[in-house]
Design goal:
Blueprint: H1 3-19, H2 23-35, H3 41-67, H4 70-74, E1 77-81, H5 83-89, E2 96-99, H6 106-113, E3 119-123, H7 129-139, E4 145-148, H8 151-162, E5 166-169, E6 180-185, E7 188-193, H9 195-203, E8 206-214, E9 221-227, H10 237-252
Parallel strand pairs: 1-9, 2-5, 2-8, 3-4, 3-5
Antiparallel strand pairs: 6-7, 8-9
Helix pairs in contact: 1-3, 2-3, 8-9
Amino acid sequence: MPLRVLHGIAHLWGNLLWAIPNRARDTTIRNLQACFPQKSKAEISSLAKDSLRNTACTAMEMGKAWLLPLADTMSLVTETEGIEAFHEALSGKEGIILLAPHQGNWEIFGVHIAKGVDTTFMYQPPKLSGLDRLLKERRSRGGIALAPTNRKGVAQLLKALQRGEVVGLLPDQVPTSEGGQFASFFGEQALTMTLVSKLIQRSKAKVFCGHVQRLPGSQGFKLLITEAVPEIYSEQLEESVRGLNQTVEQCVMEAVEQYQWEYKRFRRRPDGEKFY
């Protein structure tokens, strides 16, 4: 189906998610209230409704992201910004850590940014074996290597960086207690991965962050990519992790409504209290 048809269905779905009480709506509102306390109740409601519509758009777009021929998937990106600096950094020998937050459609972003580039993406294997096979098949198109979220996968990422390649991670997932540290994310304490900071220290890699943003009128996507904030390179783990979240915040602010606000980002709390 054309994007405009998929997005039309998604908007109906998003409106339904807003109208009927459900976990996605409740979590979206709670996250937005916490992260944007300066916004009025009406502004939060409007933003939450837009967010749910965009979440539905992401789900409806997955067929295109996974199943279309590679060239057709890549053609969905009609504009780019900042990709020249990313390609210039590829000429170095340090390797690149590419952060891809849950913003816009990260599947389309990954396929497009990895064109002609030796890339390894870390991924969480799903519990369903059939879905796992589909993800491996679709995400590995164009020569992308996949690294599981375990010690073996981390070693795979480090070796790729040492070869001067690109490794991609989703930086805004809640890690295990052993692999995370609390840091501010839009003013709220969020358990944040330390893996990026540790990879930087062991490889001296450059860090970029990017996403594809849905364009108005279902006219495709704009790919945006920028270098991470300087704090992420700090040798102090606490400052580096804080820099990671600041980098993601900047990415989110490019299109707040296209971030995946229904994800329970603050489910782990430093004081152990219940957030949701």
